[in-house]
Amino acid sequence: MADQQVSKLGIASVTLKATLAASARLWTSPFKGEKGAHTYFKDVMFAMVRTQLGNLTLAQDRHLNASTTEQYLKSAKDLGFAPESTTLPSGIQGHWIGNKNAKKVILYYHGGGYVVGASAGHFSYLVQIKDLLVAQGVDVGILIPAYDLAPEKTYPNQLRQGVDALRYLIEIEGRSPEDITLGGDSAGGNLTLGVLSHLTHPHPDIPALNLPTRLHAALLISPWCSFNVHTKAYAENAERDMLDDRVLSRWSGAFLGSDSPFAGDFYNEPVLAPAWWWEGTAGVVEEVLFWGGSYEVLIDGIEETAKRFQQGYGGKGGKVAVVISPKAAHVEPVVENILGYKKDSGTGSRIVIGDWLKAKL
């Protein structure tokens, strides 16, 4: 998205609004009680981020955020690891963290509403996951596809590239699905569910991918399951999360290429899929974790999707765990890194996900 489309004055105006929102929250936060975020610091920062994200345009979103590849190279320098990238068959870059020749691989789809690239918080969190597993004696490589972003590229382009990244690992690198774990947060969790849907119900515009064995596992961190911004959680968690209906409507419209409330389908809006849709998934992945935070605005869609997934996938013998961490916000482990937390901020989210990964890998 070209820079000339971006109003620098507009960005300055949004920045001022966000700063004023944070300043006001410094004084009002102590009086919010349970209506606010988990900690005073988060409450103030979330008020600022909500205001900024809610008032930006798509062009400003992109202008203010580095691409996934740009951020990967910067994070490699900041975090002290050697960058290694692969050009995937679809033409996009796939970026490695850890040992790319390791037997165990996590194929991780980053979040960002399908509009912005992976953040520094994503890469620092993935390095933490890699270090956690290596400390347990598990050599692992994490592949992050730099899939194309909206609005230039709309659905199902990202799904095609997500499937092709998995196809690359299996058909070109010759890896066994049993050694591959899928994962993703927010929009990346949406994409992970879309890939699982495609494996059992091939999308009509994307070549089928037939697996010789089941995938090892799938990790879903705050998956973006529903584009409906009128659920109960949007009201209850309006001041507890960093996202609101304005930014999510903007991003979903850009991803779908439509503002119609009927633009979603079973692949891109998983909450729409009935339980039977997920029955075949028991034949393509061994175990699945749904993680969500009780303070996130997306939690209603996550819980409804997880319920149907349990009925369909679990009903056919698939192992599924659903964990809702109290007082945790959207993609809490990633946001903790963005906000500068060195350890879990008190919700236990990072610990729960880390323990699951250690047990499964």
Automatic annotation (TrEMBL):
Keywords: Hydrolase. It comes from the Eukaryota. The keyword Glycoprotein does not apply. This is Alpha/beta-hydrolase. InterPro entries: AB_hydrolase_3 (IPR013094), AB_hydrolase_fold (IPR029058), GDXG_lipolytic_enzyme (IPR050300). Pfam families: Abhydrolase_3. GO terms for molecular function: hydrolase activity. The lineage of its organism: Eukaryota, Fungi, Dikarya, Ascomycota, Pezizomycotina. Residues 106-330 form the Alpha/beta hydrolase fold-3 domain. The keyword Hydrolase applies.
